[in-house]
Structures are given as structure tokens and as C-alpha cells.
Amino acid sequence: MNQPLIIEMRTIAQKLLAARTVGTIIGWEKGSRWYLTPPAFIHNEDQVDRLYFDRFAVNNLAKYLLDYRDSDEKVAVFVKGCDSRGIIRLIQDNQVKKENIIVIGLPCAGMYDRAKVEDPENPHDLPLLNKCLECRYPNPVYADRLVGEVSVSSESGRPTGTYSGFATAQSVGSRADRRFEAVDTLNNLPSGQKALLWQTYAERCLRCYACRNICPACNCAGCIFDSDRKQWTTKAALQSANSFFLVTRAMHVAERCVECGECERVCPAGIPVMSLNRLVSKEINRLCGAYDAGIELKSSFPLSHFNLAVKVGS
Amino acid sequence: MANSLDPAATADDVKRINALLPVKAKILRITQETPDVKLFSISTLDEQLPFPVSPGQLVMLSVFGMGEAIFAASAGENCLEVAVKRVGILTEALHEAKAGQTMGIRGPYGNGFSLDIFQGRNLLFIAGGIGLAPVRSLIKHVLNHRKDFGHLQLIGGFRSPKDLVFKRELTEIWPVSEDFDVAITVDKAEEDWRGHVGYVPDLVKKLKPQLDETACILCGPPVMLKNTFNVLEELAFSPENIYTTLEMRMKCGIGQCGRCNIGSCYVCLDGPVFSLAQLRALPDEY
Amino acid sequence: MKTLNKISLNSALEIFASYAPLYVPAGNETFSGFVRYSTGLEVRLDKNTKLGPKSLLFPRVENLYSYSNHGKDTEISPVPKEIEPTIIFGVRSCDLQAIVCLDDVFLSQTSRGGINDYNYRIRRGNAIIVALGCLEADGDCFCQSMGVDPSEHEQADLQLFDLGESFGVESHTAKGLNLSRLLENSGLLAEKKVAKPRPASFALTVDAQGITHKLQKMFDHSLWDELGAKCLNCGVCTYVCPACHCFDISVCAKDGCNGSTIRHWDSCMFSQYTEMAGGHNPRPGKKEKVRQRFLHKLRYFPERYGKFLCTGCGRCVALCPVNLDITEVIRRVKEAEIDG
């Protein structure tokens, strides 16, 4: 991996902590397997050497900013392109105070698909995650600081920064134009088959809420699915209630999903959660014109802003 | 094995077959204790005691279609008495209920107060708000077996004078009972209130209850409990002589659903009555 | 030892299936679990399933009773439980050890009280467990470290050993013997002189010796703050765990008057798990929830029932979205400095 980049990350973290600019740095560290680079929380200078970044640093760290929602503590957070879109969404949803966070942008060469690991003990080559092949914003769209010579860009495009050539060679973004293919395939199934397929998925859903809890767009302080007290729905994993959950979740992240794909990655039941999100965003594009969530701080929202030109049901 | 229940099945039969099934019961009487507390007298459909409970034990009440919740129960003549404060959806449904309505009841759960330990001793009762309910069931037992116990003292705290639960017992019956001192404080007084004003721990500190041969029984909200423990220890009560009943969220009542544990103890099985000495040996998580 | 040629596996499964409802491991890389066998179903025996057999004994959702309100009166009727045997085929030692943990909870084999759970008792009493010994560890397996023998489990009714071309078949109980005889009567079993195969040493090991005792002094340790920061409080670990058994009881209303009271899985990770009606929550934050999960597995359950509530199946290790790895937690506990 790119050692100079990691050193640069550690240096910037060390400086921010030394100057007490922030109390916590949210980054990644090497995990318990060669194919795992989970989130890390760094609170003092002698911990900065834990910081690490490689092609397994897949977790979108934006979500953790919600833990600081009610505090005035300043935190710094490292972001890839997709993570930075999550941060913009959180700021737009008034969940995070811009002045309380320092966003450090990273160059991203795409993340590996750990589900394809064949030898848990010895490192080997892996394909990229679909979401990275389909990625249109590999560069941070928003950052206060940058490392690895990456540039901030709210234009969709090619990766920049230290290993842009490598990322391009690895085909980051090569399937960007075909990102709706999976949902189209599902959508074009004969209706009986389609219903049956989603019934199977709904039956499998454990209601573990991993998809919800890892999603930066799922940022409600309370969720009706946690509560049986109001009896909107049952907490029990009944197929009908699970369908209600899956659809409600997808509709609730409409216009907010930043395509980080974390929901689908963490689903223990193998439900293609991103396809549901994509289905909704495709409809938004069709009805309201092309729209990508979390690209610019000052954007207008297709669903929450009234526009006479939009003809729903057409 | 029976798959359906005989309508004449007793609580014991039901429990033997399926501990999570409630028996049908009915609301015999409802007494409005305070603006947000009602006392429910609950009997079997033919107006008998659903099952015996000892002071400090718990019962699970169901409002069919709304759910279940756990409460401290006290045995009345032909009924169980349960004081319910309106705090959530289920208690709200209970407060809407009318006398005569069918409901479900299962139990009793938990250890209750160990009555032998208190035998022959002076008893200091300290209760905050609805926490008086389990304490009252013990007081009732003590007054029914008055010669087995020594001096009695009750220190009760409530939000305001209108929040006094079991008001007749508190103000008319217990104060004139043999060798029974009753002191009441309210957080916030109203014009005609002539009693103490302030929090329970402060009143305990002020009254300096006697220690000799005394066991203290304490029940109330977690903040009150923790602060009063400290005051009692300052007064040199030993943790072995302080008893409390705890409240936790519970679903099964039989040590299986997992949520009411403090360390490896289940409050529904090993509690809800603990001595402070026992609690000190457990994680501080209640 | 009696042996069953692997070529005859399908015939054996057909015989089992005609004797009683049969559940077998099936699925693919994306999703696998125990499913009802029917002719033609492809059984997956190369590695353990993503979801264990827990839900066959302790379903994700089950009706306890139905109610019907008429005015002030209510009819309640318990949901009848059919008493029919069920065969669970291909259970690994880790998952069987987890069933032993569930037995402790639901059949209350403790001097500290508790009551048999009716539904569990019926299902467990009627389950016939055909266990399959493991010879090799999957990437996240560490059952040996948790005191489980991957190659066989004494609580199996019928134990299978992988002998390469065939399965060794050993019955431990009358129920197992019954199944074994069914195969024998169909001429599917042969008698061979073979030794029980021993499993390879597992790559992933962790030393769990003495951690229950050590954890007794670690309730306030900073480790929990650190782990809690990373945890998302989703329920993946608890729902894929073969031994986690916490549940909720709630109402599933059909309409204003009718419905049922159901029992369903719940997780100590969830926000309302311990929250009381008045709002007080003894385990309010991520730290307290994470601590409860690990202390329950490694300290509280051993204190109460004398065994770990973790059997080393590795599912939570494989599926945790943030790599909160229980073997790492055990290692950290071992290394932790504590006062006193």
C-alpha cells in the first residue's frame, strides 16, 4: 500500500491533536484479517500510528459523526469520495455542524470486495466492489484538508491524486454509465417472478438494521422500526413487516442516498439493498431531472422542493 | 400434554403448561390515587384471588391487544392490588380501562422481601412516589403481624401534595398505628401544605433515623435510591441492613428474555429485592 | 464403525424425510441456512451455513396465544403446538453446543430457578439432531478455543464423521439409533474398521482461560469505551449468533379486536431493549450495550450456567460491519491492565 499516504495521514492527525484543533480523529486501522481495515478512533498523539488506509478501508465514516450530534466536541474525519458525499448530506440535514468537523479528503483507488476472499490467511488479488466500478465521484466532493495530492471536485470524473493512474487501470468508475443495469434487470423480470424474488428477500431479512445503522442518510434520531409502542409496525421479522421495512427504508433515503453501498455490503442476508435505492434514484432522475445526492452543499432537492415542472405519475 | 386450556385452569396449571400464558382476570375496582396513578384491584373472573403474592413480588399484566407490563403487586382480600402510574402506551391503556374489563395476569415473579430477616427488628421504610406500592405491601404485612416487629418509621417523598399515593393510609391510618412514625416530604409545596418540603435524602439526613436493630426498606426512582443509599451509609447503616426493590424493563418474568439482568442476576428471578450489600457486589447498571 | 457411502446421501435423506420433516443446510455464498428438505434440494455440506439451526428450536417469530376482545370480555386461546418429530441434519459442533446453551436457558437447568419454556421444550424434545463433525476450520472458526470439539458432540442424537468417501455413523441416543436403523434396514450402512477422524488444528485460536474471572474486575475498564465507539449497535452479531437468545413479547394485532401475542428475537444492541416506559435506561449508550453483549457471553453466562455463551462459530466475526471481533476482545481482555 501507499506508505507515503499513510504517513501523511498520521502526520496531519498528529498535528491536529497536538494543536488541540480536534479531540478525536476518525479514520481506519488494520483489522484482525488481511482483508479488513475497520474504523478507528484516535484521541491522542501516541495513537496516530494506528491509522491506516488501504483498499479495504471500505467503511463510510460519515455515519459516526452522528455520535457527536449533540456535543460540541470537534472531530476530524477521513473521507473517500463516497464518504464525503455522506458528510454533505449530514450537513444538509442539519445533523452535523460544519464548524465542528474537519474533513480530510483522500485519494481513492477503489475498494476490494472482501466477499470474494478465498484464502483467509494469505493475501491474494481481489476484484473491486461493484460500487467502485460504478463510482462517478471518486474524489472528495467536500474537504477541509487534503492528503495524497487529491483534488476536491464536485464534478463526476476520474480519480485524482497519488494513485490515479492505478485507480484508472483498476477500472474505478468503468461501469458508471451502466450503474442502473442491476436494477433494470430486476425491474424487467416478469411481475410474478419479481414479486416472488422480493418475497424471498423479505423472508430472509433478519431486521438486524445493519443497513440502517451504517447508512449516513439514515440519520433520524429515532426510528419507528425500533418501537413497538406506537404499533405502526411490529418489531417481529414477519415477511410483511420486513417488506414494509425494506420499502420504507428505501423511500426514506430517496434523494439522500450517496451510493456508498454500505447497506448492501453489511446485509447478512444477502439482500440487494442498493438496487432498491437505485430504483428510487432512477425514478427521481426520470421525474425531476438528473440528480446526485450530496454533491454540493448548496443544492436544491428534487423531492423536498416544490417544482411545477415535475409531473408525477407521468 | 394439554394443547388447549381448560377454562377452569388455575394459575398454577397455566404456569406448569406455559409460563408465558396469562390467566384471564378482571378489574374489580379502580381507585384514582393521584392525577396519574390509579390503583387496580384485580381478581379472577369469579372474583377470587388470582394467586397469592408475597410483599415485593411482581406480576405481569396484559391488556389484550396492547401488550404486557410488569408491576409490583400486593395481595388484597380477594384480589391483587396494582398501582399503575401513567407513563407509556400500556399504562395509558390500563388507565383507560373500566371496572369489569377482562385482562390477563401472570406471576408471581421474583423473590419478594425475605420476611424472616425483618422479624423482631425495627423497620425504616423509605419510599419515593409510586415506589410506595411495594413498600406498602410490606407495611400491610407488618401491620397484620404487628407483634413480630419493632418500631416502624416511614419517610415518603412525592412530587407535590396532589401526588400522594395511598393518601388515606399515609395520612390517616399509619400515623395512628401503634409505634409508627410517618414523615412525608414533597418536592414542591402548595399553599395548604404544612409538611416537609425537599427531597427524600435530605429529609432522611435531617430526621437521623435510629440504627439499632433496624432494617431499612427503600424503594423509588433510581436517582432517589442512589442518593439515599449514600445518606444512609453516612448515617452508619450497614449495606447488609438496607433493602431495596428494583425496577427494570421485563418481558418474560422468568429469567429468559435477557433484558433485566444486572451482572449475572436477573431482577425478575433473583430480585427484585436486593440488599445494598448484594447490589454493591453487582455492576452499577440499574 | 457403521458407514454411509456419500453416494447414498440422497437416499438417506429421502428415508429421513419420509420419517419426519427434515431440515438440511442449503444455499450459496450469499446466503445459506437450514431449509426444509424436498427431493432434488442441493444439500450444502462443504462449510457451515451463514445462519445456524437456532430458529428451528427458537423461531424468529412465534405465536404464544391469540386473543379476541368482545366488549369487556376476551377469549384467549393458546396456539396448539403439533408434537411431531423434526430431524435437523448436518448440525456442526459449535451450533450444537449453542443448543446446549439454549437448553440451559429455556429448560432452566440451574439451581437458581426459572421455569421451562413450553414452546422450546416441545420443539427440543421432538428434535432429532444429526450432527456432522468438522475436520477443517473455516476462516473465522475458533470453536476449539471455546472448549468445543469440532469433530463430534456428545449431545448429538446421531453423529456423522467425514471419512472422505463415506460418513461414519454413530448413534448416541435412542432417537439416533432409530434413524440409524432406518438406514440399516434399507441396506445403506456398512460396517468398517475405521478410526474416528481427528480434526486439523485450527489456525484461529484464542486463549479464553480465566477471562470470566478477569472480566469480574473489568466492568469499568476503558476497553468498553473504545469498542463502543466503533460499534454501530446493529443486531447482526446477535441475530447470526447460534447462542444469543434474547427475545421480546409483543402484540401482533389483526384488527381492533383480534390478534395474537407473539414472541420474537430481540437484541441487546437495540435502543429500546432496556428502556423503561418512563424513559430511564440502565444501558443507554453504545458502550453499555457492547459491554453487556461481551460480558453476557464471557462472564455472566459462565457465572450462571458454567459455560461460555460463545461457541466459536465465527459468524459474528465474519459478519460484523466494523470488525468488532470477539477473539480480539478476548485477547484484549487477557492483555488488559487492571487495578488490584
From TrEMBL, chain A:
Residues 248-277 form the 4Fe-4S ferredoxin-type domain. Keywords: Iron, Iron-sulfur, Metal-binding. The keyword Iron-sulfur applies. SUPFAM superfamilies: alpha-helical ferredoxin. Signal peptide: none annotated. It comes from the Bacteria. One of its GO terms (molecular function) is metal ion binding. This is 4Fe-4S ferredoxin, iron-sulfur binding protein.
TrEMBL record, chain B:
The keyword Heme does not apply. Pfam families: DHODB_Fe-S_bind, NAD_binding_1. Residues 20-115 form the FAD-binding FR-type domain. Its cofactor is [2Fe-2S] cluster. SUPFAM superfamilies: Ferredoxin reductase-like, C-terminal NADP-linked domain (SSF52343), Riboflavin synthase domain-like (SSF63380). GO terms for molecular function: 2 iron, 2 sulfur cluster binding; flavin adenine dinucleotide binding; metal ion binding; oxidoreductase activity. It comes from the Bacteria. [2Fe-2S] cluster binds at residues 252, 257, 260, 268. It is an enzyme of class 1 (oxidoreductase). Binds 1 [2Fe-2S] cluster per subunit. PANTHER family: ANAEROBIC SULFITE REDUCTASE SUBUNIT B, DIHYDROOROTATE DEHYDROGENASE B (NAD(+)), ELECTRON TRANSFER SUBUNIT. The keyword Endoplasmic reticulum does not apply. It comes from Acididesulfobacillus acetoxydans. Its EC number is 1.-.-.-. GO terms for biological process: pyrimidine nucleotide biosynthetic process. This is Cytochrome-c3 hydrogenase, gamma subunit. Keywords: 2Fe-2S, Iron, Iron-sulfur, Metal-binding, Oxidoreductase.
Automatic annotation (TrEMBL), chain C:
This is 4Fe-4S ferredoxin-type, iron-sulphur binding domain protein. SUPFAM superfamilies: alpha-helical ferredoxin. It comes from the Bacteria. Residues 220-252, 301-332 form the 4Fe-4S ferredoxin-type domain. InterPro entries: 4Fe4S_Fe-S-bd, 4Fe4S_Fe_S_CS, Helical_ferredxn. It comes from Acididesulfobacillus acetoxydans. GO terms for molecular function: iron-sulfur cluster binding; metal ion binding. Keywords: Iron, Iron-sulfur, Metal-binding.
